[in-house]
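Researcher: Structure for this, please.
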Amino acid sequence: MTGPDRDTESWGLGGGPDLGHIWRLSPDLVAVTGFDGRLRRVNPAWTSVLGYDLEALVGSNFNLLIHPDDHAGVEDLLIALRRGEIVEGFEDRVRGADGGWRWFSWTAAPEGDAFYAIGRDITAGKAAAEALALRNRQLAEQIEERERVEQTLRQMQRLEAVGQLTAGVAHDFNNLLTVILGNIGFVERNLQALGVDGQIAERISHMRAAAERGATLTAQMLAFSRRQKLEPKAIDLNETVGGMRELLQSTMGGAVRLETVLKRDLWPALVDPTQIELIILNLAINARDAMEVGGGLTVETANVVLTEQPERAEEPGPGDYVVLAVGDTGPGMTEAVLAKAFEPFFTTKEIGKGSGLGLAQVYGFAKQSGGGVRIETKLGEGTTVKVFLPRAAAVAGAEGGRAPEARISLRAAAEHTVLVMDDDSAVREVTSAMLRELGYSVMEAGSGGAALDILRSDLRIDILLADYAMPSMNGAAAARAAVELRPNLPVLFITGYADLQALRDVGEERIIQKPFRDEELSRKVQAALAQAQATAKMVVPIRRGRPKPGGEA
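Model: Predicted structure, token format:
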């Protein structure tokens, strides 16, 4: 017997030219292996695919070629074959002569004390499947990230829309409260002049308290909508918390224990000192209300560097932050409560025991300050609210004694005329009445155009009180035009909220926040007039004329 017939006979596979060609040319590995694991016969594909010398392979242990992680699977394969079962689709990794690993899918059948196996190289398919699986994972991650970003964006848009609505409501309420508180002041002074006291005076006092409570609520609404005017400074937050400890302890009463954990070498924080104290007190009261008697309140400070993008609308972006954390041992929040925690007017307290503006105010303040806020909560264990404040370069030095505020006498007030510009007739009337009681002459304008017409005339106007939010021409535009007409005219802005973009360069002393008291109105008008007078005295007139003989002017 010659040719392929003799070749296949030599491998114990019988004769026939077709079978001989298949044996020699097949790209699949073909092997006859004893149940002792030793290779008895192998086809030429072991050389072309794996690079082995066929004579060296025969008699070697098949397990030496198998990847260590696949040995357990091979043992299961042998068990099945010993039971007389035919195994199809068994996959493992086989080491090549170069030390690399290739994947094969085997079909094996037992015969006597050996088994016959055919292995198809599936390395390329495995790599393609792994690449596809990796791409699918990446795609799933991208979809998840996109959904997270979209959810965050929707939350931000919702909060922004609610913020704009809240700011508008707060502005209108501040106008109403200005009229209410102003007229309550007139009534109180008249009753006092008439010597009326007792029940009537007490009822007027209740009216004032209610109106001032409304003013506090509108201030919280402005804080949420990020329309309050902040005066950020570099401060040591540890000093702030330490200085408030007695106040916090008295606020908690004896029912809640207070602990402060202040980090050494704390970075300075860039924040409005007054507002951060209100935020700390606000969070402490919220925590107290969430706990039973015997609970614990912890106020903690820390330095934090964030590198990840925020997952929620209220969280801060990457950067260096000083963190104020206020934690309680209360019942914690459910996912449903957490999702709405920063929305204005949302509260879990009983009716009449909370406005729902506490955390909304914290959110607005943190965002407006350039940071953010995060809530960590666990049911049955408690809640921690972390306020992230931007890191400042250095703590500002102690301010020297403030220069005494320039003032004019009440007698001199009668010599000055104030132009009050406000489109709300009720606010304009009560503001003018306050000024007249203080001794000033007052002219009124219901729009920017009407105010400019007065300023174009020869009438004496010593100061302009301009409401910022007005239709057609707002206070800022009217003020710029007014100063062009009368360059040395002092201007004060009266506003229901501080438009930060338009009034960012206006000092606090030039802004009167609605609702205002007559004492604040008097103080700021007097200071502005006195400063204008002092500035006018510093202007040295230039003498003009023909030169005198001798070259003297």
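Researcher: Any notable elements?
Model: The longest strand covers residues 101-111. The CA atoms of residues 325 and 386 lie 4 Å apart.
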